[in-house]
Fold:
Amino acid sequence: MSQQYESMWRELGLDLTAHDALLKVLAQGYHDIFLSQANRPTGMDYFNFVVSEVHGLRIQELMDAKRQGRKVVGSYCVFVPEEIVLAADGVCVGLCAGADFATDEVEKLLPRNTCALIKSAFGFKLGKVCPYLEAADMIVGENTCDGKKKSYELLGPLVKNLYVMDLPQVKSEKGREVLRSEYWRFKEEMELLSGVKIDAERLKKGIDAVNAKREAVHRLSRLRNSDPAPISGLDSLLINQIYFYDDPARFTSSVHKLCDEIEERIAARNGVFPEGAPRILLSGCPMAVPNWKLPWIIESSGAVIVGEESCIGERGTRNLVETTSESIEGMIEALVDRYFDINCAIYTPNPGRLDDIKAMKSEYGADGVIHYGLQFCQPYQIESIPVEKTLEQMSVPTLRVDTDYSMEDVGQLKTRIEAFIERIK
Ligand code: SF4
Ligand code: SF4
Structure:
């Protein structure tokens, strides 16, 4: 791939040597973690292809879109409504990053005790290795946790066009008003950026495209409640990660195609894990590409992950946007309704998240919950304690794991997870 896309990467200002090194690590990791899994559905071939071209063909598509006058918008959070980006004929891409990069440079700007996700986002910028970041015409940050909102003050001067969206911290009428006014402001900003006036017809199209994408991953989630598990948690996570990068319509049809195959597998009792394998629900911080460490440890220890209560998972994709209104006002209101329901730990209080965990646990037949907290992530680490306590009181085995992107704790995590799986058994 390197030679074919070299001039495009150079044009984007990437550091070709560092970028090459990143791609090599990514390809090796993907080979060892994903391609080595036994009996994967053939529908995963499409997603293998997407990964193999994640910095190639997909970036070329973005550059082609830009040449046609369309705008690329990068986002760090699932509160940023892709529907509005699509309505302005834009392309929305996720920028959250799941690997350490240029850490020495990052730690000159950010305190060491910043979560790995934020550090990684900075590392990909400072190390000049992310073509999505460089291709973006606008980058949307959001005032969520303290780490993110303060770090955007430092990211602003490093990137071309940072737009910061304010977000509510409390689920109150006032909070809803904040989201409503911010979505209207974002619509205007997208109109300015793209030169496209967002009318009801355009917004309806955007809503339909994202709803269709969500419906496809909902279908996949439902199929994961079968035993034997018809698809691994690793592959499901990968699909949830690709959700943020791929062309929406192509992604939607590829997930449905995979689901057709999975339905046949379920009928034939053809699983990727033996029947009765311990079933785990993962809950906690988002796992951005290529953060596969914890799911890999869990699944290589003999348990299968059957759901993710995470932004790169069901927290991010739950609920569709209502499509009953035909006016632009009604549609924006429907967006506010849908997004306001996201149970992110930045809300206080946030009881809905625990309800979601309990519901997912029973819906997917999970035997236990592993709570994943990134070190220095106060919102999720603080919530993990009451989550564990409540679930244990309900006799749901729960394990709290706090980690980062380094591989230093793999041995220790494996020992703890194996002991947890024994407990479940
Ligand atoms: S965890 Fe919260 S802040 Fe982070 S991506 Fe999800 S919704 Fe946004
Ligand atoms: S993982 Fe936690 S600390 Fe890091 S950006 Fe997300 S909410 Fe903030």
Residues 115, 117-118, 145, 147-148, 285, 374, 377, 379-380 surround iron/sulfur cluster (ligand 2) (CB under 6 Å).
